[in-house]
Design a protein that fits this description.
This protein is an alpha+beta fold. The protein has a single domain, classed as Herpes Virus-1, CATH 3.30.40. It contains 2 helices and 3 strands, in the order E-E-H-E-H. A 3-stranded antiparallel beta sheet has the order 2-1-3.
């Protein structure tokens, strides 16, 4: 079952369970579509996997399987690291 994290790990934007612009990787790292596209260029900085739209859990299922309330932030998201 997907965790459905409540925020973008880059900009901390709220991403409620019904958000249609949430993106995830295979490890459920969660990003808003803007950060996923413009900052991360479609690649998860945590696992190097691709980012795909997060499915929306139907409201009826949320009652039995609520979304996570744990906020995750990635320090330095979008910063360029000198080689």
């Amino acid at each position: 079952m997907l965790e459905l994290r409540p925020n973008c790990e880059c900009c901390d934007r709220d991403l409620p369970p019904e958000a249609t612009d949430a993106m995830i990787c295979t490890f459920e790292c969660t990003w808003c579509a803007d950060c996923a596209t413009n900052v991360l260029k479609g690649v998860c900085p945590n696992c190097s996997g691709n980012l795909t739209p997060r499915p929306v859990r139907p409201a009826a299922a949320l009652a039995r399987h609520p979304a996570s309330a744990r906020r995750v932030l990635r320090k330095g998201c979008g910063e360029t690291v000198a080689a």
